[in-house]
Amino acid sequence: MDMSITVKDVAKKAGVATSTVSRVINDHPSISEATKKKVRKIMAEMHYVPNRTAQSLGKRTAGAVGIILPPLDSKEKMGNPFFLEIMEAINEEGMARGVTTAVAAAKDMSALLDNVKRMHQQKQVDGFVLLYAAQHDPVFNYLFEEDVPFTLVGQPYEHEEDVVYVDNDNQLLGKLATDFLIQNGHQTILFITNTIQENVYFERYFGYQKALMLAGLANQPVVPLITTENYVDFEDLLKESGATAAVVLDDVFALRVMQLAQMYGFQVPEDLSLISFNNSVFSTLQHPYLTSIDIDVSELGRVAVQRLLEQLQDTPVSGVRFVVPHHLIKRETVIKR
């Protein structure tokens, strides 16, 4: 008997979803007799013995939902209103559907993974909403490999066909932001980011590149403001590039970029127009008010909960990716050239 055989191995050979195998194990009525017969035959051939996790998958009830935050390793991340807004929306949607919420948070990835494992294994929650998408993420890998029901907010790096995720069209967002600057006469446009690991950065940067290519304008190398050295080099970069505008990854970070540019003698928007994303409360905390693209954070949270509950209640999920609309909010940080 090979104890290393998993639910996923059986599902792959049977050509069905892992959740289908789990429901066959529990003799769930939503699975046809033909499918049950087929899966049980393969289980027998592979000498698969169901483990406790697999046996419990078909018996979950949506009593509690876990919210997983990314590692909060900086004050900037801890204070990002995106997470506060989406957690509020998830909690409200959960309350409306009779579901409580619990938060998994930590300062580093190892502690976060331990937190998530404990919540799952002790059955504190029935499933999770994962609020970030990162490459080689052990938390994502654990949820996927253990067949834990979850909805991802963002776009996964892998297993796109098998993961339920809710997202904006971030590549389109990047293109829309860049197009708006081009329409206002800007030709040398930077893309400024405080991360080069998260999928939201890649997608928005791809959109930025696409807009410039279609307009026949030169792409600029990405401008990362992550390390102290990056911040020191920013003055020379602004002067040497001759840029008149920039797309910034999100509006909290855009305020930092604005302060830094002004410290180096560049006025916003007179010398440097800025456009960002999220349209949080920070967009209008100080003048000039930020031109930003609203990504409807509340809707992201609501849809994420709805899609998770569908998985928990054995309701067929109509598709895998769910795209939330966006709209441009014109304010004061973009002017015509």
TrEMBL record:
PANTHER family: HTH-TYPE TRANSCRIPTIONAL REGULATOR GALS, LACI-RELATED TRANSCRIPTIONAL REPRESSOR. This is LacI family transcriptional regulator. Pfam families: LacI (PF00356), Peripla_BP_3 (PF13377). The keyword DNA-binding applies. CDD domains: HTH_LacI (cd01392), PBP1_MalR-like (cd06294). It comes from Enterococcus canis. One of its GO terms (molecular function) is DNA-binding transcription factor activity. Residues 5-59 form the HTH lacI-type domain.
